[in-house]
Design a protein that fits this description.
- With about 325 residues, the chain is of the alpha+beta class.
- It has two domains: about 1-45 and about 155-315, no CATH class; about 70-145, no CATH class.
- It is about 50% helix and about 15% strand.
- The protein has helices at about 1-35, 40-45, 55-65, 75-80, 140-145, 170-180, 215-230, 235-240, 240-260, 265-275, 280-285, 285-300, 310-315; strands at about 70, 80-85, 90-95, 95-105, 110-120, 120-125, 130, 180-185, 195, 205-210.
């Protein structure tokens, strides 16, 4: 009789492993489908308007404002349909420019021009320091003739609505708290950021206080994946490979939620596609780590999901 129970549990675990693999496979298919839509084209048009900052400047930005998500200069924000609020403190970075100087040969009197590099201090602002433009004023047009009214095309990820019937949020909080992390619900300024995991050694996870129950459940899975997979990554490495890290964390959230009977594709697929830049190879390359972590979380939230052996393999 005991043997029958063991076989049943192993069979159930095998079925769950197969489910996890199938769920991950659907990410590639759904991302590929999304990248053929007008919504994706609009997202790419928006994304290409942001400057690609150097690693050194990214480090400066993170040091001054760790929760930064999207950064641009004052006039650039006007072009993107947002204006910086009065009194906001600028994030200082190093710019690059060059200027011509003329050298005169003391013997011949001939002039020769050459360029020298300069590195001026520039001011940029995070999206959390801005508000949407509802009406373009003459002053805004004077600052930037391309100033426009805000149209939200920033993300193809759609916020989840509804409840958390599987109680994923509280179960995930209990699990990651037992791993030495603290989880809190806090107000996060308007940035499109639903949560974040600290990288300064404080081991904190913050989830936005105003999320729906369904979105909060998905988000805590995402941040738990960051905590398990990326907490020990050097800050410079994390910044350099942030796209891959975000693909991994959201893929884990999607697969783990799916194993628990919850479909987060309305949000997850667009989010993954955005950070992967539509490249499905990134999704395939991260599959092994994603599946291991998703199974680890699912096993903790639902002990019947995997066998003891599977749990050890996933850890």
């Amino acid at each position: 009789m005991a043997r029958t129970a063991t076989i049943s549990r192993e069979q159930r675990a095998a079925a769950r492993r197969e489910l996890a693999a199938q769920l991950h496979a659907t990410i590639t298919d759904k991302v590929a489908a999304l990248t053929n839509t007008d919504e994706w084209a609009a997202f790419l048009d928006y994304a290409t308007k942001f400057h690609a900052y150097s690693l050194n400047n990214l480090m400066l930005i993170i040091a001054q404002r760790p929760d930064t998500s999207q950064v641009a200069g004052y006039n650039k924000w006007l072009e993107l349909g947002r204006h910086v609020r009065k009194g906001e403190k600028a994030i200082r970075i190093r710019g690059f420019s060059s200027r011509k100087i003329t050298d005169t040969d003391p013997e011949t009197g001939d002039d020769a021009e050459r360029k020298i590099a300069t590195y001026p201090i520039l001011s940029v602002f995070d999206i959390a320091q801005t508000d949407p433009i509802t009406e373009v004023t003459d002053w805004m047009r004077k600052k930037n003739p391309k100033a426009r009214v805000w149209v939200d095309l920033a993300s193809p990820a759609h916020t989840l609505i509804g409840d958390d019937p599987a109680d994923i949020y509280s179960r995930t909080v209990d699990y990651i708290t037992a791993q030495g992390w603290t989880v809190s619900r806090e107000q996060i300024p308007e940035t499109g950021t639903n949560g974040y995991t600290t990288t300064d050694g404080t081991r904190r996870i913050v989830i936005a206080a105003d999320l729906t129950d369904a979105q909060a459940a998905k988000t805590v899975l995402h941040e738990t994946a960051h905590a398990l997979m990326h907490a020990d990554i050097d800050t410079a490495d994390y910044i350099a490979h942030r796209g891959r890290c975000e693909v991994e964390a959201e893929s884990v959230a999607y697969v783990a939620a799916g194993m628990l009977g919850v479909d987060t594709s309305d949000y997850s697929i667009g989010y993954i596609a955005g950070w992967a830049e539509g490249n499905t190879d990134v999704i395939a390359d991260t599959a092994a780590r994603v599946l291991a972590t998703a199974r680890q979380i699912a096993a903790a939230l639902d002990p019947d999901t995997l066998t003891d052996t599977d749990t050890e393999d996933a850890a």
